[in-house]
Here is the input.
Amino acid sequence: MKIRTMASVLVAAAFAVVVHAEDKKPSPAGERFEQFKQLAGDWVGTATGHGPDQKDVHVQFKVTSGGSAVVETEFPGTDHEMVTVITEDGGDLALTHYCMLGNQPHMKADGKGAADKVPFQFVSVGNANADKDMFMHDVTYTFVDKDTLRAEWTHCHEGKVQGAVVIELKRNK
Here is the structure.
């Protein structure tokens, strides 16, 4: 008898969660976040801005934490590996970049805007002095099509913009 009662309660709870999830329409920030979730998988491409030559880039995107975070891993498994985590933050998107320089810039993007571009703007930087140290200041992701992504990262040093790194990626099929 206890098993039947418990099973009935579990089925009712699961049904309530599914109905609630179906009723909930995504916010504009949620729709933008869905674009990042669709990036899950391996990507390859090139980066320019690290000097005169292009550099080959491998990036992995993974949806984690119950679908509430997207983790971007650049140069996975190398000495230059870096991680960027993107999440919803109220009506906006938030990003923290864990840089190989040992700092953690925090950025935000307005939850509303053009469907193909998501510009993240500098909020703060952890483990660095924004007036003296080098760190990534902002990034704009451009969703060219479902298999092409462009990321333009601007970096600062001594409180001034020093240049940009442009990463052009294609989904690795």
About this structure: The radius of gyration is 19 Å.
